[in-house]
Amino acid sequence: MFRPLVGASASALLLAGATLAGAVPASASTQSTTQTATRSAEPTVRPQAVSFAGTVALSNCSGSVVRMPNSKDSDYALVMTNGHCLEGGMPSAGQVIVNRPSTRSFTVLSSSAGNLGTIRATKISYATMTDTDVALYQTSSTYAQIKQRYSIDALPLAAEHPVAGTAIKVVSGYWKKIYSCNVDGFVHELHEGDWVWKDSLRYTSSCNTIGGTSGSPVVDAATGKVVAVNNTGNEDGARCTVNNPCEVDANGTVTVRQGINYAQQTYHITKCVAAGNRIDLNLPGCTLPKP
Question: Which of 12, 128, 194, 231 is the most buried (most CB within 10 A)?
Fold first, then answer.
């Protein structure tokens, strides 16, 4: 995991690339699986200009203001980051947090990474490090209010599984840096310390994310939609340890890829959000872990 940076230098990172990919002050890791479709089979899409608009900086990580396919402008906005970036510490394996009060603040960035102001959470709507590594905060501001105040739009979450070979951008609000690479493939299980993540997205080598980039949105460069949330990487070549995740295929074969980084897909989140941006883990098709 790129471990969240807690007033520490980048050398002190644990996880998000914990190695979860956590942060430092905002001033400033197959099996390529079943996804074999190619982008050539898709309609031609004009590439989007991916910027920092819609991203936020946390005290220890990166994040983004996101909206679901069914979100309305009048809904209270959601901020997405990693589960390992929570202000109360990382959830244990098997732990799921739902509707926990929070007053965490987030710095809203302009398209050029300028600080526009802050928005504040009212609760952690959902967070876990089981099967995936994600946290969703509900804020006290609606999408319309954020648009009116800061002239930025939330980033839409894609509702479909991404495709190998897709050009992507990892946008870090903490470091105010954009990494460009492609989806290299997908991992049956990614093991790091006590945590196991399923169907993780693996980057090609040019996305050399670091601590503080944890929670960054992974944006499809063609559609502008978020397909994953950045979370970890293998730093030292160790096998399945914290900061050194390993890939485990369906047959139990372990592969270690030193220097390669990973993200957790987000399309399945859209199946678990009801009207009003309300998390409903009982919706048909919802596969997020339950408490």
Answer: 231
